[in-house]
Design a protein that fits this description.
The protein is mainly beta and about 140 residues long. It contains one helix and 13 strands. It comes from Desulfonema ishimotonii.
């Protein structure tokens, strides 16, 4: 629980007696302690899956902190952290992945590079490098 505070202030909370089925989109940080079935997505948010949560969904977020049960693919732009008694069944992809001892993970794990080149080319006023001609000495 203490490490989950790194994710920032929780802006949305789904309690342990709640269930949602469908697509859950959010901004900021959301904590889920209930049941979710479907898809969870956020372009820049962090999802915290509490110890009593059961998530049967694909998760596409900036960051994920898992302490409950997740059945589905987790694709994070920044990081995925799994703490005991967390249980993940499915594939996980992120530049930074941390699975503490005592947590359970069954699936494939992919470490993807952070997309620095995309940010660099999208800055205004910057020209992209031009390709050189054959025989140019660089």
């Amino acid at each position: 629980m203490k490490k989950a505070k790194k994710a920032g202030t929780i802006s949305t909370f789904l309690g342990p007696e709640s269930s949602i089925e469908g697509i859950l989109e959010f901004q900021g940080t959301i904590r889920l302690d209930g049941n979710v079935k479907g898809k969870i997505c956020s372009s820049s948010g962090t999802v915290i899956v509490g110890e009593k949560a059961v998530i049967n969904a694909d998760i596409i977020v900036d960051g994920a902190v898992i302490m409950g049960e997740v059945n589905g693919t987790i694709d994070a732009k920044d990081r995925i952290e799994v703490y005991p008694p967390g249980r993940v069944t499915g594939d996980i992809y992120a530049p930074v992945i941390s699975i503490d001892s005592g947590a359970t993970f069954n699936g494939n794990c992919g470490m993807k590079a952070q997309d620095v080149s995309r940010e660099k080319t999208s800055e205004p006023g910057e020209e992209s490098p031009k390709p050189g001609k054959a025989g140019d000495n660089v």
